[in-house]
UniProtKB/TrEMBL annotation:
It is found in: Membrane. TNFR-Cys repeats lie at residues 82-122, 123-164. It comes from Anser cygnoides (Swan goose). Residues 82-122, 123-164 form the TNFR-Cys domain. InterPro entries: 4Fe4S_Fe-S-bd, DEATH-like_dom_sf, Death_dom, TNFR/NGFR_Cys_rich_reg, TNFRSF10, TNFRSF10_N, TNFRSF10A/B_death. Residues 309-378 form the Death domain. SMART domains: DEATH (SM00005), TNFR (SM00208). GO terms for cellular component: cell surface; plasma membrane. One of its GO terms (molecular function) is transmembrane signaling receptor activity. This is Tumor necrosis factor receptor superfamily member 10B.
């Protein structure tokens, strides 16, 4: 794929590619706008909850209270009672009791106590930290000092270790020398090229002509440079590209639309289109219970989606803040809240719960690369397979 990208841009198909990219991003924006509208619609119902096994809705109880008794009429107000001393509810809810306040662990200090609307806030003790990128099972000791030859760049905080680096003085000094050398070399090269293009053919015309030509040379150089730069960008998405090309080898990405072998740019435009990725639909392998396969996939999601993103992810899956609080209550320090969150989502979705919804939500919160990884893992594990693309175009 990487070489395909370069090839196509070398052959001057860039304008075509760009046009396609513009068209496909416009399509993606359109799709996203539809999704937002749907979300807005579902938000309207957030002030009410449905009483189980009955046709009617009741107003949610405000934060800091719980539902003591459901309302007795459509859209009525339930009886809400305030949380006891060791309980809290952060958002309007239909909880039958308040959530239990945390007590801070031994390696933490209490930043602020629990009250009716806010759980206890705990942070690591002085000199220790927990990175927000991982579940905090225990606070780790910060480095006490920087290694010799390095200086402190950022101090130890409850959320980050002491950060050390080379002293800034020598850093910028050596950098300056390198930059000066590069600039000088570039200037010499430019002069050489100018001389080659213009002055080797002195018969070509007068000085005005020469001026125009050197203008052309500069233009040419700028063009070459931007082309190199684009080539470099193309290699950045290395891993994803490799995934894509692997899929292509397996024949999982047949080019639709072109009757015979498509041009290179055809394939490139298709696979670099963000909405195309979401069209690569996974289906459970036949002969196994799809519900079990879906639940099994939760492990892969919990392992691969960064822990710090699990709430954002839950919101992208249309879960409410209260659902997330409930999930979190279970256990803050393992991957358990993540599983709870996915369980809740599955219960809400019922039979329509699909691994593709989980993957799409990742794309929506800009974790598309992780979604790609997860899909290929699920396929490798043999629990899911790609649906042939033609079907999804249906
Ligand atoms: C209850 O509330 C919903 C949403 O706010 C509204 O559509 C519906 O008409 C209300 N029903 C009654 C009986 O007030
Ligand atoms: C709970 O504490 C937070 C800050 O710690 C504060 O903003 C909030 O108003 C408090 N709520 C109540 C009900 O006291
Ligand atoms: C932590 O250290 C800082 C400065 O080193 C100090 O101001 C603060 O009081 C300490 N906090 C605790 C709980 O020891």
């Amino acid at each position: 794929m990487r070489s395909a990208l370069r090839l196509s841009s070398r052959r001057g198909c860039l304008p075509l590619l760009l046009a396609k990219a513009v068209l496909s991003t416009a399509a993606a924006v359109e799709v996203r706008r539809d999704r937002v509208d749907l979300l807005e619609l579902s938000r309207k119902g957030e002030d009410f909850y449905q009483v189980q096994d009955s046709g009617w809705y009741c107003r949610l109880c405000p934060a800091g209270t719980y539902v003591a008794e459901h309302c007795k009429e459509q859209n009525g107000s339930s009886t809400c009672l305030p949380c006891e001393a060791d309980g809290y509810v952060e958002y309007p809810s239909h909880f039958g009791r308040c959530l239990r306040c945390w007590t801070c662990r031994e390696d933490q200090v209490e930043l602020s106590p629990c009250n009716a609307t806010r759980n206890t806030q705990c942070v690591c003790k002085n000199g220790t930290f927990c990175s927000p990128d991982h579940p905090c099972e225990m606070c780790q000791k910060c480095q006490s000092r920087c290694p010799s030859g390095q200086v402190k760049i950022a101090p130890c905080t409850p959320h980050s270790d002491l950060l050390c680096g080379p002293p800034t003085g020598s850093f910028s000094g050596s950098y300056m020398i390198v930059i000066v050398i590069i600039v000088a070399l570039a200037a010499v090269l430019l002069l050489l090229l100018l001389w080659k293009r213009c002055c080797r053919h002195p018969a070509a015309g007068d000085s005005r002509d020469l001026g125009r030509k050197s203008g052309n040379v500069v233009h040419y150089l700028v063009l070459q440079l931007t082309r190199c730069w684009r080539g470099g960008l193309g290699t950045r998405d290395n891993i994803r590209n490799e995934h894509l090309s692997r899929d292509q080898e397996r024949g999982l990405l047949p080019a639709v639309g072109a009757p015979s072998a498509p041009g290179l740019e055809e394939v490139v435009a298709r696979t670099s289109d963000p909405s195309a990725k979401t069209q690569k639909i996974l289906v459970p392998v036949p002969g196994e219970d799809p519900v079990i396969l879906l639940r099994r996939s939760f492990h892969v999601f919990a392992r691969d989606v960064p822990f710090k993103d699990w709430k954002r992810y839950g919101r992208a899956l249309d879960l409410l803040e209260n659902d997330l609080a409930l999930a979190e209550m279970n256990d803050k320090y393992s991957q358990e809240p993540f599983f709870q969150m996915l369980n809740m989502w599955q219960n809400k979705q019922g039979m329509s719960a699909s691994v593709n919804t989980l993957l799409e939500a990742l794309h929506r919160i800009d974790l598309g690369g992780i979604a790609e990884d997860i899909s290929s893992k699920l396929v490798q594990q043999g629990s899911f397979q790609y649906q042939p693309l033609k079907l999804s175009y249906g």
